[in-house]
Design a protein that fits this description.
By secondary structure, this protein is mostly helical. Among the domains are: 84 residues; 72 residues, no CATH class. Helix content is 72%, strand content 0%. Keywords: Repeat.
Length: 468
């Protein structure tokens, strides 16, 4: 940082073009806070931003989730008598999407059209991508159709984005129809289109469609890439079809496509019940000079923990750190689960405190693991305290956490407390599911509380959670 700030005190002083160029290079390295800090120093030294500078700052604020500051930059563009350009508008749209404000991004799109701003293909693709990633596939299709009726026609990138979204939400047949429509519009599918469709059909086991797609690729002179083969390896692996996995790997080598880290991660994930084979694959990776990533380490740590070989885990974590990877929340959740299952509750609580101390935000899965472990380990009071803190912090809408606590109370014979918690659950607007009722009914009937169990059974039927 010192070197970059000294740049501001050069004689003659740098131009705003040079400052913007430096800011841009810092942003390319994803050092958004550093870029913002540098600009604050530049601004206090009397430098006036250009539209390019402001676009860079808008991007920084969007990337760190400070949308209010991003919009204040838009105000400064107008203050300096300039009009926001297409880069500014697209950056805003992308910022809203990556900050889970897709509805606001749509409103912003409508506002821009009303003000007669001209959007380009990148703007539309950005918004369509945001809609697809947030599960709003119908809205994405509607926007695609709007493009088709306008001057700005959708490209293969636009179609691919929607096709991929449809496939990821299990709508492969609709994606296939959209691909046919794309071809009819004179836009040939590319490798990205085919990979999305192959993923969509293989994930639902429609292998005839997959074979047909692979044949189409050959006819269209499109060669499968590593990603294509990885999709097939993953799908066959999940179905336990090891013979087909080996056949795909053989075909991969025949096509002169080398397995990458993702391929090995997929193979390891499919062999986690046979941890020795996964460790052999890990050694093979290193022999081929493939650097393991965080997914690789987490898969191995999970397999070692589940096979009871926790003594090996510490060495793996040290290696992971040496390779520049810090444990993430997935890593911590795996270790917490292992400690809880082995009733090493003190170690689990210490790890949980370490996670919080390192600024890693636990998620619902973290709390579920820990509360379940505390309940099963005879630490009901500690579990209840953590549970109530969760409710205070806004986790009162998820049935899973209630179910764990209700099961813990029932296991201790505290049926009235469990039933009261069911009432509290309803008061908080969280709908009990079949697991909630089954846990309570099984416990009540097991202790001869037949009337209470029968009452809950009738309630379960009335809510449509059990067929008569």
């Amino acid at each position: 940082m010192a070197a970059t700030t000294s740049f501001l005190h050069m004689r003659p002083p740098p131009s705003i073009f040079q400052i913007s160029k430096l800011l841009g290079s810092i942003v390319k390295k994803k050092h958004y806070a550093t870029a913002l800090s540098l600009w604050k120093r530049a601004h206090s030294s009397g430098f006036t931003p250009s539209t390019v500078t402001l676009n860079i700052l808008i991007n920084c604020y969007c990337r760190i989730g400070q949308m209010d500051f991003a919009f204040s930059m838009l105000g400064k563009i107008l203050k300096y008598g300039n009009q926001p350009d297409i880069i500014t508008l697209t950056t805003f749209m992308k910022g809203l999407c990556i900050n889970n404000m897709v509805g606001e991004a749509l409103d912003f799109h409508d506002y821009l059209l009303a003000k007669r701003f001209q959007l380009n293909e990148v703007s539309y693709n950005t918004l369509i991508n945001g809609l697809c990633k947030s599960g709003q596939i119908r809205a994405a299709i509607k926007l695609l159709n709007t493009m088709k009726r306008g001057v700005l026609k959708p490209s293969v990138v636009t179609y691919n984005t929607v096709i991929d979204g449809l496939c990821k939400y299990g709508l492969a047949n609709e994606a296939r129809d959209l691909c046919s429509e794309m071809i009819h519009e004179g836009i040939p599918p590319n490798i990205v289109t085919y990979n999305s469709l192959i993923y969509g059909f293989s994930s639902v086991g429609q292998w005839q469609e997959v074979i047909q797609l692979l044949n189409e690729m050959v006819l269209n002179d499109i060669n499968p890439d590593v990603y294509t083969f990885n999709i097939l390896v993953d799908a066959f692996g999940k179905e336990g079809r090891i013979t087909e996995v080996h056949a795909v790997l053989a075909m991969m080598m025949k096509c002169d496509k080398r397995p990458n880290v993702v391929t090995y991660n997929t193979l390891m994930d499919g062999k986690m019940r046979r941890v020795d084979e996964a460790l052999d694959l890990f050694k093979e990776m290193r022999c081929k000079n493939l650097i393991p990533d965080l997914v690789t380490y987490n898969s191995l740590i999970d397999g070692l923990c589940k096979s009871g070989r926790i003594s090996y885990v510490q060495d793996l974590i040290h290696e992971m750190l040496d390779n520049g990877y810090s444990p993430n929340l997935v890593t911590y959740n795996i270790l917490l689960d292992a400690f809880c299952k082995r009733q090493q509750l003190e170690e689990a609580i210490a790890l949980y405190k370490q996670v919080e101390g390192q600024g890693v935000q636990p998620n619902l899965h973290t709390y579920s693991i820990l509360i379940d472990g505390l309940c099963k380990g005879g630490r009901l009071g500690t579990a209840l305290k953590m549970f109530h803190n969760l409710l205070i912090n806004g986790y009162c809408q998820d049935a899973r956490i209630y179910n764990i606590m209700i099961n813990g109370l029932c296991a201790e014979g505290l049926f009235d407390d469990a039933i009261n918690l069911l009432s509290k659950m309803k008061e908080n607007g969280c709908f009990p599911d079949s697991v909630t009722y089954e846990t309570l009914i099984r416990a009540l009937l097991g202790k001869g509380e037949n009337e209470k169990g029968k009452k809950l059974l009738l309630e379960m039927v009335a809510r449509g959670l059990l067929k008569r």
